[in-house]
Amino acid sequence: MMAGLWRRHRSLALGVGITAALAALALLGQIWLPYDVTAIDIDNRLQPPSAKHPFGTDHLGRDILSRVLAATGTALGVALVSLGVALTLGVTMGALAGLAGGWLDEVLMRLADALYAFPGLLFALLVVAALGPGIFNAMLAIGVAAAPVFARLTRAGLLTLRQRAFVEAARAVGAGPGRLFTRHLLPNLSAPLIVQSSVTMASAILAEAALSYLGLGTQPPQPSWGRMLDEAQGYLGVAPWFGLFPGLFVALAVLGFNLLGDGLRDLLDPRTRR
To answer: What is the pTM assigned to this prediction?
Structure first.
């Protein structure tokens, strides 16, 4: 099965492989870690990679492998929660705008345009700066920043679908707006929403790393890839492994979810099939 998937959809196969590996590492980090992620051991600070510490140690003697594994769970958790916020808010806005039309459509879409006018990371910075630093506020800010994309996708799909024959038939037998949307329209909107969800998770991981790097996301002593990069920047000349491994995991996570989104687009969109 994987061989056939590799031949036909290499982006999807690579994306599935990378994201599955990250999920497995995140699960491992919740069950078992080689060392305590907050344990300080000054005598072993800035040790290079070795059998005892495969990723080396940081400026406080903490095991980098353990912290990277723990941070993997944090990054994926932030991505999932942020995606849930974006989907809930964006799909609701898009559904109300596309089904109701009129002044409500105009108000909701102008609100989405106003949110979309801000770069996602800048908007997240403004929200976190206003609400205070912390992982919960970071997830909320990233989710709200991503919601306009889902609102636009949902509304555009509804405007295309609502004149189709199957929708008219559902209305003729008495289907209300809620049933019409959940039973007939939403399943036909699932493909673009699934693809966008994968891309949004990549953006959320990058945004969380950036916020933590700036001290507005995950707070110490809990590990985060972005926080580890911030701590490593003053030691890159003497301990390059300090920043190499968290940076590599950020790059792999973003690459994996982007490849997954590209592969899903090719798989689910009939226009891109050979």
So the answer is: 0.88
Per-residue pLDDT tens over the stretch 99-158: 777 888 888 888 888 888 877 778 888 888 888 888 898 899 999 999 999 999 998 888
What is the domain partition of the chain in residue ranges?
A: 9-28+61-272
As given in the structure block, the two tokens for residue 135 are 């992982």
What CATH architecture applies to the domain 9-28+61-272? Orthogonal Bundle (1.10)
- Residue 129 in tokens: 């700066």
Q: Which two tokens stand for residue 60?
A: 């406080």
Residue 65 and residue 28 in contact, taking contact as beta carbons nearer than 8 Å: no
